[in-house]
Design a protein that fits this description.
Layout: E1 2-3, H1 13-24, H2 33-36, H3 38-47, H4 60-71, H5 76-102, E2 107-114, E3 117-124
Parallel strand pairs: 1-2
Antiparallel strand pairs: 2-3
Helix pairs in contact: 1-5, 4-5
Amino acid sequence: MLDISDPGVTCTPQESEQLRQLVVSRRPGKGNIQAEYQEYWENGWRTGEIMKYAVRPGDLQMAQMAHLALYQRETAAGLRAWNLMQQTTRDCIEDIVDASIAAGYQAVAGNERQYGVTYPILIVLDPNILTSPVKV
């Protein structure tokens, strides 16, 4: 299991970097600025923003998509943009999952941000590590 909730503290810098390199070698992961730069990667895991797609500076098409998704969701174009941004975010999460499996981890502990709140998450990659609930 890898605890990457605070890279450099809860895992070694080498473990963090190995996973980052695997993520950036994947589909949108290689275009996700959160994963591209080590500083953003580490801060993203601490804040939970790593689970979100971040628009690359200068990418006007994705910036416009994000604007439509956030501020014009009631329009047809805004709804299409919202759905695209949701799919892209899911792809980024899948890249983290696929890279973690490729690295041989059974689970990854980190943080996720939803509605302005950061909370801990556990991504279970191998269901065999789970046990049945025990009533105490």
